[in-house]
Write a structure and sequence with these properties.
This protein has 371 residues and is α+β, with helices and mostly antiparallel strands. The chain contains eleven helices and 13 strands.
Length: 371
């Protein structure tokens, strides 16, 4: 009799220990699943997306401002700091009944908080102004041409003249009143892109008298192609294995190409003319209207239609990959406009290349995200 009672009590206590162990194991696994490490990784990706989107919106907004004759303002993020908070609470209980079923209880609570802070500084000062206003160095131009970009995209964006062939130099500033000259340059840049795509064109450096000189080299097998002949005819060049790339102040020569590059602000002004202006703003004189010699308005799509366009809408554009609200209108880039998206990426790379050196970081502006 005593033996049976002992066995019964032992089974009851074993059930208690078994269920308590199960509860504790469940709580431990739950707590492990709530470790913040995966969340930290997800948060960093979220900050990356937020920063990329904010800088892209800033660039679009500044292009719209330039189209309206207003000064741009650039902010740079210098640091991102984040505070993480995590707390949890776990309690459980088991009630063993003489007759099944037993009753169990488990209470689990936790809280998690992320407090990110972005620190901004305005890009300003004498050094930044010089970077903004100085012509793009030919060395940087070759760097972009050799980084996989289309030759015509880089040249149209960064160059305003090759020899005497102009690429809308008046578009490198506030909207001109007269239509720019650009059609011959389009023919040259497109012919160069055809040669590059076929592997016949290279931009490189040749060493001469201990100096690295930038040159444009055309393969021998491409010398008689119609694109090569058109390039030589429009630029006034002789047949040669390569052509030296020099500044606009250099002397003329049959194997020399004088390259007049835009400044960074000139590139921004140039692309700002691809911003579509609402009809009422045109009619009210809020922007300058460029006209042809006969007085009819010039359509900037003739210059930039296949390169860069920012559309406008009175309502939120659901098809936009990027949009900003300004003057009661939405200005946006459609997700389907691959040419504009490519040019916009090139613009951001160019801005990073030209504006990053010599910047002045003052004063600081620190804004907690979400406030």
């Amino acid at each position: 009799m005593i033996g049976r009672k002992f066995v019964s009590a032992w089974k009851s206590w074993w059930r208690v220990f078994l269920r308590l162990g199960l509860i504790l194991m469940l709580g431990g696994l739950t707590a492990c699943g709530l470790r913040p490490s995966p969340t930290l990784r997800q948060s960093s990706l979220g900050f990356n997306r937020a920063l990329q989107h904010a800088l892209s919106e800033q660039m679009i907004l500044n292009l719209v401002r330039l189209r309206y004759g207003e000064p741009p303002v650039f902010l740079e993020v210098t640091s991102i700091s984040t505070q993480y908070g995590f707390s949890s609470d776990l309690s459980g209980g088991v009630k063993i009944n003489e007759v099944y079923p037993d009753s169990y209880s488990l209470n689990l609570g936790f809280s998690y908080a992320v407090k990110p802070t972005f620190t901004f500084v305005p890009l300003q000062g004498e050094e930044f102004a010089k970077r903004l206003l100085s012509p793009i160095p030919i060395e940087h131009l070759i760097l972009l041409l050799n980084s996989g970009w289309r030759a015509d995209r880089v040249l149209r964006l960064c160059v305003q003249a090759l020899n005497e062939v102009e690429n809308a130099p008046t578009a490198s500033g506030p909207t001109p009143s007269e239509a720019p000259e650009f059609r011959k340059f389009l023919r040259v840049s497109r012919a160069l892109e055809i040669l590059r795509r076929r592997g016949y064109l290279r931009f490189m450096f040749l060493e001469e008298e201990g100096r690295a000189l930038p040159v444009m080299k055309i393969s021998p097998e491409a010398q008689n192609l119609p694109e090569t002949e058109e390039i030589r005819r429009l630029l006034g060049l002789a047949e040669a294995p390569y052509y030296r790339l020099l500044g606009p102040e250099a002397e003329e020569g049959p194997n020399r190409i004088r390259v007049e590059t835009r400044s960074l602000i000139g590139v921004l002004f140039y692309l700002s003319h691809g911003v579509e202006v609402p009809k009422e703003d045109l009619e009210n004189g809020r922007v300058t209207i460029t006209r042809l010699p006969d007085g009819t308005p010039f359509n900037w799509k003739e210059l930039l239609g296949d390169l860069f366009q920012v559309r406008t809408s009175t309502t939120w554009p659901s098809e936009a990959v990027l949009a900003v609200r300004y003057r009661e209108h939405w200005f946006y880039i459609p997700d389907t406009d691959r040419d504009t998206k490519a040019t916009f990426i090139l613009l951001q790379q160019l801005f990073a290349l030209e504006a990053s050196k010599g910047k002045v970081l003052s004063p600081l502006l620190t804004l907690p995200v979400g406030q």
